């Protein structure tokens, strides 16, 4: 399988704190990779650098042969909007919009007509088993439903990579497993790669491969389940 997204020699400091100290990683097309490691080890920083959200101080991030760190801000935003999807721990849905409008938002932003965007969004909400909350606002759903709405929104644009930072961090284990099952099943069906940050072994168990980050350095744990 070809490498889709990779990072080499990443360094990133926040003031005197070194968050990344030579971290590297390679993500192949369609694979689910779990980034694990203790709190404060640099997992989120690595994810944000990989996704082009945070510029590293040095090192390179390469997506399909393009150096993300050398792109203009506009080109990077465009890439994030069209090729990447995001799921965070919580708080990423727009509270004023219904769940359906939230899922449809990325399609609307890329110029799709409301009717078409909502039809595609309903399909995704059915797949994530949250079509029942389509007309409710995020504040009126359970935590697990909200995360599944966020997953539907991340997948609706058919991204090549879904970045998920502790997507089950605020859920109980049963709901966490349901989110992980639906996320990884949907990603595998569409061929999207998933880069997942977690410190829960049972969440990482849904991945093909684990990468461990310690003190801002990453190490591949190369095994296939
Ligand atoms: N915006 C920021 N400003 C200052 N320091 C930061 C910032 N973001 C991260 N850090 C620091 O960088 C280091 C790595 O943080 P990071 O958030 O990447 O860790 P993490 O592995 O995701 O931890 P957790 O499991 O707790 O989420 C930590 O020491 C953290 O305090
Ligand atoms: Mg983190």
From TrEMBL:
SUPFAM superfamilies per the record?
Answer: P-loop containing nucleoside triphosphate hydrolases
**What cellular-component terms does GO give this entry?**
plasma membrane
Every copy of the ABC transporter domain together lies at 5-224
Keywords (A to Z) from UniProt: ATP-binding, Nucleotide-binding, Transport
Q: What's a Pfam family this protein contains?
A: ABC_tran
An example Gene Ontology molecular-function term? ATP hydrolysis activity
SMART domains according to UniProt: AAA
Its recorded name reads Putative ABC transport system ATP-binding protein
């Amino acid at each position: 399988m070809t490498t889709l997204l990779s990072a080499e020699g990443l360094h990133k400091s926040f003031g005197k704190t070194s968050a990344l100290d030579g971290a590297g990683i390679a993500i192949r097309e369609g694979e689910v990779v779990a980034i694990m490691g203790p709190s404060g080890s640099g997992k989120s920083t690595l994810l944000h650098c990989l996704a082009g959200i945070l510029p590293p101080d040095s090192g390179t991030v390469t997506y399909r042969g393009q150096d993300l760190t050398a792109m203009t801000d506009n080109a990077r935003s465009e890439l994030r909007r069209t090729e990447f999807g995001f799921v965070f721990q919580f708080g990423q849905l727009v509270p004023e919009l219904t769940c359906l409008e939230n899922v449809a938002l990325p399609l609307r932003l890329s110029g799709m007509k409301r009717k078409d965007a909502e039809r595609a969004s309903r399909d995704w909400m059915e797949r994530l088993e949250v079509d029942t909350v389509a007309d409710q606002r995020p504040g009126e759903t359970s935590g697990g439903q909200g995360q599944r709405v966020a997953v539907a929104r991340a997948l609706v644009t058919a991204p090549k990579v879904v970045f998920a930072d502790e997507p089950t961090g605020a859920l109980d284990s049963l709901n966490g497993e349901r989110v992980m099952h639906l996320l990884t099943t949907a990603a595998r069906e569409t061929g999207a790669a998933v880069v997942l940050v977690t410190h829960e072994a049972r969440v990482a168990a849904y991945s093909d491969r684990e990468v461990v980050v310690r003190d801002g350095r990453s190490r591949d744990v190369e095994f296939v389940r």
